[in-house]
């Protein structure tokens, strides 16, 4: 197994990952089938579980090569050639994940596992051909993968009467705020907003909330959480 690890100087507050749990894509190279499975994974145990499941599903394939990058700081990075010549499969797959631009000049894809299942077609590709095939297989799958941004946001609550909750939530969404989980109490509905964790952003949201509710709603800051935010 080839391994690599990066320890950045500062902790990330945002990164990009897959919007859905899984995506599959297949390419053919000189009669060999390369089936790429991308999976959103939160930790190393989940990544290895995905690989184990695909080994069972494609039990008759010759190779099940893998690479994954995990964590906001992308500090967990692993790759495995699974019997292909050293450096021709896992590392090119890992580099395809690490070098994927999620925005112009931004390479921050994480919490992503890639497994490429290869059915040998009888024609040897050579080291260079294998590198290109595994890299292109992952890149082609990523081209089709919907992405989402993960941001560390402060979850703030506001309690309003049940009758006012629907209108206020719609107004907040229309204003561009990211809404978190809503809960219901006996007399009130508790709306939760995921806001940038800075005093200016919280103050601005408090002022907007007061304007939308005629001063009746109060924003109560809570803990920070990693939250999915759609990429515009």
Primary descriptors:
232 residues, alpha+beta, Ribosomal Protein S5, domain 2, Alpha-Beta Plaits, 2 domains, 6-stranded antiparallel sheet, 12 strands, disordered N terminus
How would you sum up this structure, described in words?
The protein contains five helices and twelve strands. The protein has a six-stranded antiparallel sheet, sandwiched between helices. Strands 2, 8, 9, 10, 11 and 12 form a six-stranded antiparallel sheet that branches. It has helices spanning 44-57, 90-98, 126-143, 162-174, 199-212, and strands at 2-4, 14-18, 22-29, 32-40, 63-70, 76-80, 112-119, 147-161, 178-179, 183-184, 188-196, 220-230. It folds into two domains: 2-145, Ribosomal Protein S5, domain 2 (2-Layer Sandwich); 150-230, 2-Layer Sandwich (Alpha-Beta Plaits), CATH 3.30.70. It is elongated, with a radius of gyration of 22 Å. The protein is of the alpha+beta class and 232 residues long. α2 (90-98) packs parallel to α3 (126-143). The longest helix is centred in the middle third of the chain and has 18 residues, at 126-143. β5 (63-70) and β6 (76-80) form a beta hairpin.
């Amino acid at each position: 197994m080839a391994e690599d690890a990066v320890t950045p100087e500062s902790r990330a507050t945002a990164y990009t990952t897959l919007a859905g749990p899984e995506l599959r894509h297949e390419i053919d190279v000189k009669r060999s089938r390369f089936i790429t499975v991308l999976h959103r994974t939160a930790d190393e145990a989940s990544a290895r579980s995905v690989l184990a499941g695909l080994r069972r599903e494609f039990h008759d394939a010759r190779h099940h090569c893998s690479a994954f990058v995990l964590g906001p700081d992308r500090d967990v990075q692993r790759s495995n050639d699974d019997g292909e010549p050293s450096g021709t499969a896992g590392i090119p797959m890992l580099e395809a994940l690490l070098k994927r631009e999620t925005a112009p000049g931004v390479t921050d894809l994480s919490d992503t596992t890639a497994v490429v299942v290869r059915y040998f077609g009888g024609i040897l590709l050579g080291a260079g051909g294998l590198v290109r095939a595994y890299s292109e297989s992952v890149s082609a799958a990523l081209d089709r993968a919907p992405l989402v941004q993960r941001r560390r946001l402060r979850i703030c609550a506001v309690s309003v009467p049940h009758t006012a909750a629907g209108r206020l939530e719609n107004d907040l969404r229309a204003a561009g705020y990211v809404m978190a989980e809503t809960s219901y109490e006996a007399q009130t509905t508790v709306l939760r907003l995921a806001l940038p964790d800075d005093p200016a952003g919280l103050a601005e949201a408090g002022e907007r909330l007061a304007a939308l509710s005629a001063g009746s709603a109060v924003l109560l800051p809570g803990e920070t959480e990693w939250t999915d935010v759609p990429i515009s």
